Amino acid sequence: MNFIKNNWPGFLLCLVISVPCWFLGKLCPIVGGPIFGILAGMIITLFIKDKSKLQCGIGFVSKKILQYAVILLGFGLNLSVILETGKQSLPIILVTISVSLLIAWLLHKLMRIPGDTATLIGVGSSICGGSAVAAAASVIDADDEKVAQSISVIFLFNMLAALVFPMLGTALGFSQTSGEAFGIFAGTAVNDTSSVTATASTWDSMYNLGSQTLDKAVTVKLTRTLAIIPITLVLAFIRAGKSKGASGKVNIGKIFPMFILYFVIASLITTVAVGAGVSASVFSPFKTLSKFMIVLAMTAVGLNTDIVKLIKTGGKPIFLGLCCWAGITGTSLLMQHVMGIW
């Protein structure tokens, strides 16, 4: 009862704000519900004089609900289908992820960008935007301002990709009779699923390709999503090593991200069920709920964020995001050219 009493005011506030943000995200998928949630939270928190009764619930939503959202995301992954159809793009995915993480690490060292911020932007840029940031933030226990900053940076370059990439693809001479090459490009070089969808759909519309590009791009994107598993495990062990260095011993059980284990279990359930003949549409409500919970969590993140401080400290993170985005884009194009796809 104490849990409900302490958390319901903050939870209710997040819920009231996130519902219209969810629908706004549906109307404007390039922006997406999470960004509307963060922005609304950052603006509304300016008008709340005393958040003492709300803070407990807001904190619960920004941390725990975020983890539950990642778990439910697993129900959208049929591992056998993804691995079979995504293996063509796997080398590109691995190299682009490596390049992005390397850039994030180098700029963290050279420009003294906070480690949590560099990690979140590097992981979010290289894997799958908001979902990857959610998973990584839960593992490294990043504060809400760093999460908001990272999501905002990734959103900026998602928007640019959705607007620029179709024109870039035309200029570079991507096939206009097949969506394969541009689909792989969109799936590997655009961060968030909503922007991947928007970019690929634009290419399909430009050249009357039906859903060829979209189907390819989404499959590649889902294959990238699997990288959440090894990345979060590596982050957990790095954190475990630091804890050991500070105390001389480490409790892996406390540091291991159990929600990632549940994410894998959810993916396996979907894979086994679909293999046994269950329709994939059965799991659609879980995917929808996952997306809404991310909007809910990002609203809480916004409510915990100082927008003035965010603007003042935004220069270096934006530059980091630009470098990661440019590195991923260039690497994806180079790998496709080397592999003879484009």
Question: What tags apply to this protein structure?
Answer:
mainly alpha, 342 residues, single chain, 0% strand
Cα radius of gyration in angstroms: 20 Å
Would you tell me the structural class of the helices and strands?
Answer: mainly alpha
Sheet with most strands: none
Shape: globular
User: How many helices does DSSP assign?
Assistant: 17
**What amount of the residues lies in strands?**
under 5%
Per DSSP E runs of 2 or more residues, the count of β-strands stands at: 0
Order of helices and strands: HHHHHHHHHHHHHHHHH
The helix content is: over 70%
| Integer average pLDDT | 84
| Low-pLDDT residue spans | none
Through-space gap between termini? 60 Å
Give a written overview of the molecule.
It is a single chain. With 342 residues, the protein is mainly α. The chain has helices at residues 2-27, 33-44, 55-73, 79-86, 90-111, 115-126, 130-140, 144-172, 180-189, 193-207, 212-225, 228-247, 252-255, 258-275, 284-303, 307-312, 315-338. Helices cover 79% and strands 0% of the residues.
Topology (SSEs and partners):
Blueprint: H1 2-27, H2 33-44, H3 55-73, H4 79-86, H5 90-111, H6 115-126, H7 130-140, H8 144-172, H9 180-189, H10 193-207, H11 212-225, H12 228-247, H13 252-255, H14 258-275, H15 284-303, H16 307-312, H17 315-338
Helix pairs in contact: 1-2, 1-3, 1-15, 2-15, 3-7, 3-14, 3-15, 4-11, 5-6, 5-17, 6-7, 6-8, 6-17, 7-8, 7-12, 8-10, 8-15, 8-17, 9-10, 9-11, 9-17, 10-11, 12-14
